[in-house]
Amino acid sequence: MFNSFGEIFRFTTFGESHGKAIGVIIDGVPAGLKFDEEFLVSELDRRRPGKNRFATQRKESDTPEVLSGVFEGMTTGTPISIVIFNKDQKSKDYSNIKDIFRPGHADFTYWHKYGIRDYRGGGRSSARETAARVAAGAVAKMILRELDIEIEAGVVEIGGIRAENIDYEYAKNSPIFALDSEAEKKWIEAIDKAREEHNSLGGVVKLRIKNLPVGLGEPIYYKLDNILASAMVSINAVKGIYIGNSEAHKLTGLENNDEISKDGFLSNNCGGVLGGISNGEDVELEVFFKPTPSIFKPQKSVDIYGNEVEVNLKGRHDPIVAVRGSVVAEAMAACVVADMLFLNMTRKMEYIKKIYQ
Ligand SMILES: Cc1cc2nc3c(=O)[nH]c(=O)nc-3n(C[C@H](O)[C@H](O)[C@H](O)COP(=O)(O)O)c2cc1C
Ligand SMILES: C=C(O[C@@H]1CC(C(=O)O)=C[C@@H](OP(=O)(O)O)[C@H]1O)C(=O)O
């Protein structure tokens, strides 16, 4: 596979935003891993909608039910399936846009591709699906924890306002996962203003992976940065990523190169990846989210019959996607790293010999 992930640790999600349930089936988890259900619940809680005014007001508890793959608190090596039942759909809110395409959302492309569309809350294209990804990410994190690999993320930019001081600890208790307490005040004002004006904002998430060994990633077809990029851009509303210093393209070679001493690298502009392979430094990236497409302002569009119409939306929507998106980005990074670790093992004779000794 050239540009995707899921060679060994892989998952499939299912379900629609207003259907009965959403869920995930995870393959490739080794047997004998302690399954921390409390942690799974807490990860889903970090992403869940309806928690505060910075998120959609849809109220879902996102309580997971583990259906398979776990016995007496341990993984069995068989597929782990997790289901989350939808509780607060309010599908009627979407009846007036049943035949109309929302600007910026996937309604137009789904209709033209399939000729049939679950219009209730965007169906499969709704980021409700990302709850299932966070469940997969929680399982990946359970594996990574055993190896002291940690993944942290938070918001570094909202509405064009950039953080000046990055503090990952601060983000853990911020209602908007802000990486900077000063910027947080300005961001909250900007989000409140956008909500009052029935508009939305975009943002950037910064993410780091700590304690990775040197050597994860393959030289051409399965580069660590390539696969991280693919995983991140697969998240709804993500339009790009940057590996390492996002100002690097403005620097000279001398400024940008990370010099090396016998104790290690003297800087980390490369974001922990050289030639597609981890170099042992923190892997750092930025993830760019567009503004939420569903806004409460009249906009021009067409219906499925080709008539020009004015769109007026109801429903409940995030005033900014990047905030909850930061939890989804962490989950996707965890899945990529778990997969890369297992792949790395299968590509080294010394590990394979150890397993068969
Ligand atoms: C966590 C999260 C929450 C989102 N919430 C909303 C929302 O409330 N309303 C909306 O229109 N889009 C929301 N989106 C974005 C849409 O799902 C996305 O823009 C849409 O599927 C079209 O895909 P694209 O933007 O990648 O082209 C959210 C995305 C994420 C990651
Ligand atoms: C329900 C969630 O977020 C949803 C993401 C979303 C979208 O279009 O992406 C649209 C809104 O919901 P609906 O699908 O009902 O239109 C959000 O509330 C969730 O994250 O669990």
Characterise the protein shown here.
The relative contact order is 0.18. The radius of gyration is 21 Å and the shape is globular. The model has no long low-confidence stretch (mean pLDDT 96). A five-stranded antiparallel beta sheet has the order 8-7-9-15-10. β13 and β14 form a beta hairpin. By secondary structure, the chain is an alpha+beta fold. It has nine helices and 17 strands. The structure holds flavin mononucleotide and the ligand C=C(O[C@@H]1CC(C(=O)O)=C[C@@H](OP(=O)(O)O)[C@H]1O)C(=O)O. The site of ligand EPS has 15 residues, from loops. Its cofactor is FMNH2. Its EC number is 4.2.3.5. Homotetramer. GO terms for molecular function: chorismate synthase activity; FMN binding.
Q: In the residues, how many domains can be counted?
A: 1
| Radius of gyration computed on alpha carbons | 21 Å
CATH superfamily: Chorismate synthase AroC
CATH fold category name = Chorismate synthase, AroC fold
Cofactor: FMNH2
Protein name: Chorismate synthase
Enzyme class: lyase
Subunit structure: Homotetramer.
Task: List key phrases describing it.
amino-acid biosynthesis; 17 strands; five-stranded antiparallel β-sheet; Chorismate synthase, AroC fold; alpha+beta; Chorismate synthase; four-stranded antiparallel β-sheet; Chorismate_synthase_CS; binds ligand EPS; 29% helix; FMN
Helix/strand layout:
Layout: E1 10-15, E2 21-27, H1 37-47, E3 64-68, E4 70-71, E5 74-75, E6 80-85, H2 107-114, H3 130-145, E7 150-158, E8 161-162, H4 168-173, H5 181-196, E9 203-210, H6 224-233, E10 238-243, H7 253-256, E11 260-261, E12 264-265, E13 273-274, E14 277-278, E15 283-289, E16 299-302, E17 308-311, H8 322-346, H9 349-356
Antiparallel strand pairs: 1-2, 2-6, 3-6, 4-5, 7-8, 7-9, 9-15, 10-15, 11-12, 13-14, 16-17
Helix pairs in contact: 1-3, 3-8, 6-8
The structure holds flavin mononucleotide (FMN) and ligand EPS.
Ligand EPS binds next to loops.
